[in-house]
Design goal:
22% helix, alpha+beta, Rieske Iron-sulfur Protein, four-stranded antiparallel beta sheet, 1 helix, binds FE2/S2 (inorganic) cluster, 2 domains, 158 residues
Length: 158
Amino acid sequence: MTDRPMDRREFLAGSATLLVMVTPLSMLATSCSSDSAIKAKLPAEVGFKDGQLILDLTQLRFQPLTRVGDGVKLDIPARPKPIIVTRVSPTEVAAFSSICPHAGYEVLLPEDGKLMCSSGHGGLFDLRGTVLHGPPKSNLERFEARLDKNLVLIRYPK
Ligand code: FES
């Protein structure tokens, strides 16, 4: 390093290099802190990694998801009502909002492979959240979900 004062061009070049080096680190730190903030608000039995909720089907809480036609509700930060996770088939799970698109009442857990709206208006959905009977005119909001051995992985609903 020389003792001569840095001219304006050298200073700007050095600043740009520093900015390029620091930005990815700060983005990573922000991502990690938001991940840990989400995890801190989740029920203890729910895992969270890489933007996905992780449900371990060996845990008692998630045993209903080992049975086709059954399901569970999960309270998720930033969602006003729980999400519903269902076991659609031996190889398929589904996750969707419990908020009925008709008038916002909460949809109940499955019975006989169907989910009824709690309003008493007659809304009925299948295990994928697809509307079977009105008055709702649209399906429940779906979230990406998949089964991986004994784990259910759900893209975190925002
Ligand atoms: S709010 Fe669900 S059927 Fe009316």
